[in-house]
Amino acid sequence: MGFTIRDIAAVCGVNPSTVSRALRDDPRVKSETREKIIAMAREHGYNPNIVARNLAAGKTNTVWFFLGSLENEIERKPALQISSMIQEAGYDLMLVLHRGQPDLFLRLFRKLTQKVTDGAIIIPCGDFDIAEMKKLMPSISVPIIFIDRWLDDLNCPVVTSDNRFAARTLTEKCLDAGAEIFYVYFKESDNVARQRKDSVCSVLAARNVEFYVDEDSLQEALKRNPEKSLAVLGNSGRELSSIIKARFSNYIGERHIIGGFFDFWDQPSKDFFQRIFVCCQDFNSIARHASQLIVKMLSGDHVCPDTFIEVSPERFKEI
User: Fold this and answer.
1) 272 and 176 share a domain?
2) Which of 259, 197, 201 is nearest to 229 (CA)?
3) Which of 97, 120, 149, 150 has a 20 to 30 A CA-CA distance from 307?
4) What's the pTM value of the predicted model, to 2 decimals?
C-alpha cells in the first residue's frame, strides 16, 4: 500500500484533516505547516484523488461565478472582489463565461443540478428561457445568489444597485441642467432596465415634464420645438449616441443636449452633448455583499431566499 494521508500526518505530527486541508492549499493552514506537508507528500509520491475525495465529502471547495465577459469593468471588478473574499473562506472561484448567449447560459446553469460546485454567484444574460430555469431550480441543491440583474420568482437572494435612486438622481441632474424634453431609452430586457425606466418616467410625470419613450413621438416633438433643450437617458452612452446620430441628426442643430448614463462614457469627446452625467455603480460593495452571503450559506447559516440588497451608487460624475 502506498503512502497515505494518515502516514503524512504521523510523520508531520498533525491531524489527517490538517494534511487534507494543506493539500487543498487551504489558507487556514499555516504556510510553514502547509509547505512541510506538501514536501513530505512529494517525497513519498503521494497524489490525492481529488475527484474521489470530493465525491466522498460531497464538496468541491469551489464557487462558480457566472458572467458574460471580462472585457468590461462592470463584470471584472466583481470577479476580483469575489475571488479575494471566497479564497479567504477556503474556496476557489471558477469563472464561468456565458458570453451573453442565452443557450450557453442555460446549458451552464443546468450543470448546477449535477452539484459540480458548492455554490454559484450569477450575473445572468439578458434573454433566455425563464420557464426552463424555473423547472431546473428544484433540482439544484447548492446556494445561488444573483447580482446586478436578477430573475423574478426564482426564490434566490439578490444583490444589486439601488436602481430607482440612481435613475431618479440622473433625472434630477438633467432637469437642473435645463432639460425641457426627455428621451427615455431603456430596453426592458431585465428588471434593472425596467426599474430605471419606471423611475425616470415617474419623476418626469410628477414634474409634468415632456418625455418620450418611442422614436416617432420624439421626432414629432423635436420638430415642434426646435429650440427646446433635450435630455437623453439610458443605460449605455455609446448606444444612445449612435441612435441620436442615426435617427435624429436632422433635429439636433444648435439644440442644447444633455446625456444621463450608467457606469461610464467611453467616447473620446462629448460628441454633440453639452453636458453628460454618469452614475457609477458600486460594484465592489455589490460583490462584497454577495460574497458574504454565499460564505454564510456555505457555512450552513440561514439566509432568507427573498433577501434583496440594494447598494447605493458609488458616485455621480459629470464628464
Assistant:
1) yes
2) 259
3) 97
4) 0.80
